[in-house]
Design a protein that fits this description.
Layout (H helix, E strand, L loop, with lengths): L2 H26 L14 H15 L16 H4 L2 E5 L5 E5 H18 L3 E5 L4 H15 L1 H7 L13 E8 L2 E3 L2 H6 L1 H11 L4 E5 L4 H4 L4 E7 L3 H10 L3 H6 L1
Helix pairs in contact: 4-8, 5-6
C-alpha cells in the first residue's frame, strides 16, 4: 500500500476507534442495569392496593341463613383477629368487624351507659355441630331449631356476627331470657349500630322471615354504614333488603 495513503488512513481509524469506544460500542455492550430507574410505589397506591385486596377477599354483604349455606372457601379467606373480653375469654372476629365493634362498644357505654361485651363470635362449622348437639340434649330440639342455626348455615361462621352480653353493675348477663327481659338496654345500643356498619340481624316480629327467634343481642357487620342505616331505619331484615 502507498505510504501516503497509510499516513492519511491511520489517524482516521484512530479517531473512529476512539469515538465508538467511548460512546457507540460502550453503549451497545453495556450490561450494567444498576442505573435503571426504580419503580416507585407511593403510599397512596399501597393503601389503595391493600384496601382493594381486602375488599375482594370476601363479600361483607353475604347472606347466610337456612337457605343459603356458607361458601365452601369462606373460612379459608376470612381474616380473623383474637379479642379477649373482660372475662378473660378469647374470641375470634373478622378484623374490620372487630375494629368497628370496639368503637360501637365505647360509644354506647359513654353515651347510653350500657355496657356490652363480646359473648359469642366466630364459630367453625365443627363447633356449630357440637353446639347443636349439646343444646339439643340440654334444651330440646324445638328450642334449638328456634335459636341455633344448622351447621354450615350459621352467620357465626362468617366472623361478621357478634353476640353481645350485658355487664350490669359488674354482673354478666348472658342468659337469653334475661337479655330479652332487658330489651330496653339493647334498644339504646341499636341506635348506634348503623353508624359503625352493623345491623340488628334478628329483629322482633320477623321470625317468619329470618327463621329464628328475636335476638336483641345479635349484631351483624356489613361494612356499609349507609346501607346499615337504610335497613335499621326501615325496620327490615337482611333477607328483605337483599330481596329488594
Amino acid at each position: 500500500m502507498n505510504k501516503k495513503i497509510l499516513y492519511v488512513l491511520i489517524p482516521v481509524l484512530i479517531i473512529v476507534a476512539l469515538f465508538f469506544g467511548t460512546k457507540g460500542f460502550g453503549t451497545l455492550n453495556n450490561t450494567d442495569t444498576s442505573q435503571t430507574e426504580p419503580v416507585v410505589e407511593t403510599e397512596t397506591q399501597t393503601e389503595t392496593q391493600t384496601e382493594t385486596e381486602t375488599q375482594n377477599a370476601y363479600d361483607y354483604m353475604i347472606l347466610v341463613n337456612k337457605q343459603n349455606k356458607l361458601p365452601e372457601d369462606w373460612e379459608e379467606k376470612v381474616v380473623l383477629k383474637e379479642a379477649v373480653n373482660k372475662y378473660g375469654e378469647t374470641k375470634l372476629v373478622e378484623e374490620k368487624a372487630l375494629e368497628h365493634f370496639y368503637k360501637l362498644q365505647k360509644e354506647v357505654a359513654e353515651e347510653e351507659g350500657v355496657y356490652m361485651e363480646l359473648d359469642s363470635t366466630y364459630r367453625s362449622v365443627q363447633e356449630q355441630q357440637e353446639l347443636w348437639d349439646d343444646w339439643t340434649v340440654e334444651y330440646g330440639e324445638d328450642y334449638v331449631k328456634t335459636y341455633v342455626a344448622p351447621p354450615g348455615c350459621s352467620e357465626h361462621h362468617t366472623g361478621l356476627a357478634i353476640d353481645v352480653c350485658l355487664d350490669i353493675d359488674g354482673v354478666r348477663v348472658d342468659d337469653n331470657d334475661d337479655m330479652i327481659a332487658r330489651k330496653d338496654l339493647f334498644e339504646k345500643a341499636w341506635t348506634h349500630l348503623a353508624k359503625y356498619g352493623f345491623i340488628l340481624r334478628y329483629p322482633e316480629g320477623k321470625e317468619d322471615i329470618t327463621g329464628y327467634g328475636f335476638e336483641p343481642w345479635h349484631f351483624r357487620y356489613i361494612d356499609d354504614a349507609e346501607t346499615a342505616k337504610k335497613i335499621m331505619d326501615q325496620g327490615i331484615t337482611f333477607e328483605e333488603y337483599k330481596a329488594q
